[in-house]
């Protein structure tokens, strides 16, 4: 199973929650790509992409020069094209089932259309059997597809304990079961019109939580709201 960090140009908070995820999910050896302005997010984290893709309309000349000085390939595409920069970066990977894709900077308050487009990319990857996580550094969306599960363990670092856990489905998810949450679920179906699994949270004494689904698609929203931001990087 290979792991990939793909940096996109949406909002990004270089938070302690993000640092926790990098460590807890063992992402130190992940392959790194960036789409245009997403390269700024990677550099802020002290990470060097293997390649940067895009038309470079959202990356400053100074940062482009930094990439050149560090001998990072910048693959330039025309601004008028049928693919988004993020889509180009995603297509650069030869995905295999059980690979893990972190779309960092995938969420955006200013461009909800871009955010929805990134959710569509997540759906495409999930259909290939790829495990997908979208994040802005304080909200983490784990896309579960088919028979799958996810677990988050903060037993070694309490900073990893989330404030809110919400479960939503873009269409339907069957036989959803959760543990470690204040309001556990047992074999329920969640449809696209259901909101009963919003705003849950970990049990007071829990050191982890676990969600599994038998079929369909389920988005597990893991939110950190308790002042964990260290550096805020808005859309350029």
Please provide a written account of the structure.
There is one protein chain. By secondary structure, this protein is an alpha/beta fold. The chain folds into 2 domains: 3-137, Thiamin pyrophosphokinase, catalytic domain (Rossmann fold), CATH 3.40.50; 145-223, Jelly Rolls. 20% of the residues lie in helices and 33% in strands. It contains 5 helices and 15 strands. The chain has helices at residues 16-24, 38-44, 61-69, 85-91, 112-127; strands at 3-7, 12-14, 31-35, 51-54, 74-76, 100-104, 131-135, 139-145, 148-153, 164-168, 172-179, 188-191, 208-213, 215-223, 231-233. The two termini are 33 Å apart. Its EC number is 2.7.6.2. This is Thiamine diphosphokinase.
CATH topology-level fold name of the largest domain: Rossmann fold
Q: What do we call the CATH homologous superfamily of the largest domain?
A: Thiamin pyrophosphokinase, catalytic domain
- The shape, in one word, is globular
Low-confidence runs: 229-236
Instruction: Report the strand count.
Output: 15
**What top-tier CATH class of the largest domain fits best?**
Alpha Beta
Beta-strand residue fraction: 25-35%
Mean pLDDT across all amino acids:
91
Terminal CA distance: 33 Å
N-to-C SSE string, H for helix and E for strand: EEHEHEHEHEHEEEEEEEEE
The helix count comes to 5
What is the CA-based Rg, rounded?
18 Å
């Amino acid at each position: 199973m290979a792991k990939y960090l793909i940096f996109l140009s949406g909002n990004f908070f270089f938070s302690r929650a993000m640092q926790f995820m990098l460590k807890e999910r063992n992402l130190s050896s992940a392959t790194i790509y960036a789409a245009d302005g997403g390269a700024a997010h990677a550099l802020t984290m002290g990470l060097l992409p293997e390649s940067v893709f895009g038309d470079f309309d959202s990356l400053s000349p100074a940062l482009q020069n930094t990439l050149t000085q560090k001998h990072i390939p910048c693959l330039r595409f025309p601004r008028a094209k049928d693919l988004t920069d993020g889509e180009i970066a995603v297509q650069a990977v030869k995905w295999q089932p059980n690979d893990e894709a972190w779309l960092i900077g995938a969420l955006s308050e200013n461009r909800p259309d871009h955010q929805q487009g990134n959710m569509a990319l997540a759906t495409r990857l999930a259909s290939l059997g790829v495990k997908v996580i979208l994040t802005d550094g304080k909200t983490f969306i784990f896309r579960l597809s088919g028979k799958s599960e996810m677990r988050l363990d903060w037993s070694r670092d309490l900073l990893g304990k989330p404030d809110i856990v919400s479960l939503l489905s873009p269409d339907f998810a069957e036989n959803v079961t959760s543990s470690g949450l204040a309001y556990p679920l047992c074999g329920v179906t969640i449809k696209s019109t259901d909101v009963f699994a919003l705003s849950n949270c970990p049990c007071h004494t829990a050191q982890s939580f676990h969600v599994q689904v038998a079929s369909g698609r389920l988005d597990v929203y893991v939110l950190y709201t308790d002042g964990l931001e260290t550096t805020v990087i808005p859309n350029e």
